[in-house]
Model the fold of this input.
Amino acid sequence: MKSSQSGDIYSFRKFHRLVLINKEIHEVICLTNKEFGKLIVYNFCGKKIKEVVVKSDELFDRYAF
Done:
C-alpha cells in the first residue's frame, strides 16, 4: 500500500496485493481516487486466467486485511 500522512490521519492512495485463493493467485490493484480497480487472476503456474474491472470499494473490502 502507498499512503500519505496528514497530521495523525493516514490516507491510502494505492492498494496492491497478491492473495492465494483456491490454487489461484489474485492480484488486486486499486487507487483510492478512482472508482474502479482491477483484479487479475493467475493459475499457480503464473498464466493469466482473467482480468476483471471491479469497483474499488468492493476490492478494498474483500482483500484488505
